[in-house]
Design goal:
This protein has one domain: 2,3-Dihydroxybiphenyl 1,2-Dioxygenase, domain 1. Helix content is 21%, strand content 36%. The chain has 2 helices and 7 strands, in the order βαββαββββ.
């Protein structure tokens, strides 16, 4: 769990897996993590979603950061949405690596 929120730092990580039980077993045996320490572990939202980790990067100005991503050749993958006190914006970088932006409302 991330307790320090600062622009440019990872704010949250999550993993989407076909078999969440197998993923929990893998990470607990490999790293000694508990199922609670894995972060956002979930099943896939659709069958085309890849099995992968997703890192959320903290920003203090999400709208400006979205424009900066576009200006640097990045592509928007998912529109901005609000989830509790966090605004999320997923995007695809130039090389197809998925990452997300977050702005925590404190």
């Amino acid at each position: 769990m991330v307790t320090l929120h600062k622009k440019g730092l990872p704010a949250w990580v999550e993993v989407a897996a076909d078999d969440t039980r197998a993923a929990i077993k893998f990470y607990t045996e490999l790293f000694g993590w508990t199922s609670q320490s894995i972060g956002g572990l979930s099943g896939k939202m659709n069958p085309y979603q890849p099995t992968q980790w997703l890192t959320y990067i903290e920003t203090d100005r999400i709208e400006q950061t979205i424009e900066d991503v576009k200006a640097h050749g990045g592509q928007i993958y998912m529109p901005r949405q609000k989830c509790q006190e966090v605004f999320l914006q997923s995007q695809v970088t130039l090389r197809g690596l998925l990452l997300a932006l977050s702005r925590v409302q404190v």
